Description:
single chain, alpha+beta, L,D-transpeptidase catalytic domain-like, 2 helices, globular
Amino acid sequence: MPSEETLRLLGLAEERRKALGVPASDDCLVVSVVQQTLVRFHKGRAVRTHRVSTARAGVGCVENSLRTPTGLHRVAEKIGAGAPAGMVFKARQPTGRLSSEWPTPEDNLITTRILWLEGLEEGHNRGEDAEGRVVDTRARFVYLHGTNQRDRLGQPNSHGCVLLSDEEVAELFDAVPEGALVMLG
């Protein structure tokens, strides 16, 4: 059963979707920064809850803030199909090395799969804000992705992205299509 916070965010996602005129999606991912969870909904029903890590610096949409953006997003692009669990990505390209082989294991790596997010709220998580600052989630390269620091899931640990275990990001990658809605709050 999803928490009250998750249901609040799901309702907010639906309100914003309608206000923006965004088509409905069978799939919606709801990320609670407070609870450090991601709940996958399919056709309005909670399917699975995942422990995640969001940004150490908290939430915010401004470029170079190292914060997790808030608001309604969609999965713009899926990268890494067929890569082995633990494959390290740099600039969205597989490096050919697994995280277990990485020379500096203390690095928080992008592993296994990438779901690249695109903000849907102009001036909030898309384009620029009223002060002319870039707030564009996609241009900030914010992803849902695997991490080599699985032991830190459930607490803030990223530079803005949403981190999942390698197994769970691969499962999510296979389960949701490009265009699936994502609510971060």
